Amino acid sequence: MRSTDIQRFHVGARLSEMAVFNGVVYLAGMVPEDGATDIRGQTADVLAQIDRLLAEAGSDKTRILRTQIYLADMADMAGMNEVWDAWVAPGHTPPRATVQAALGQPGWKIEVVVTAAQR
């Protein structure tokens, strides 16, 4: 494979869950698989998905370059941060933005977009 090739993972009709180009891993917006759980459950679900995808691309959470977090309700910030703080690797906290946004499904409370470097 040439270094200019784009690798796409879990390609669907509408989007790929992940792409890798030139040693950089780009994740699509990760949303909870179960929209019926609270913000803590949804955050843990999304972060577990991120862990799996990063591992598949030869990366991990210590290699995250940037994170964008979308919350349906900013009142969920404390609960999300509680799970995030337990998950993020000390000394490797990435640049992060957190904003409120209308998400794609009524039950979704969180969506997370990650960019990371490969190992």
The helix-and-strand class reads: alpha+beta
Strand content: 25-35%
Secondary-structure element series: EEEHEHEE
Distance between the termini: 17 Å
Give the number of DSSP strands.
6
Question: What is the level 1 CATH name?
Answer: Alpha Beta
What's the tally of helices? 2
Q: Give me the side-by-side strand order of the main sheet.
A: 1-2-3-6-4-5
Strand count, sense and barrel status of the largest sheet are:
6 strands, mixed
Average predicted local confidence, pLDDT = 97
Poorly predicted tracts of residues: none
Defining key terms:
single chain, alpha+beta, 60s Ribosomal Protein L30, Chain: A, 6-stranded mixed sheet, 2 helices, YoaB-like, RutC-like_sf, RidA family protein
List the helices and strands and how they pair.
Elements: E1 7-11, E2 16-21, E3 24-27, H1 39-56, E4 64-71, H2 77-87, E5 96-100, E6 110-117
Parallel strand pairs: 4-5
Antiparallel strand pairs: 1-2, 2-3, 3-6, 4-6
Helix pairs in contact: 1-2
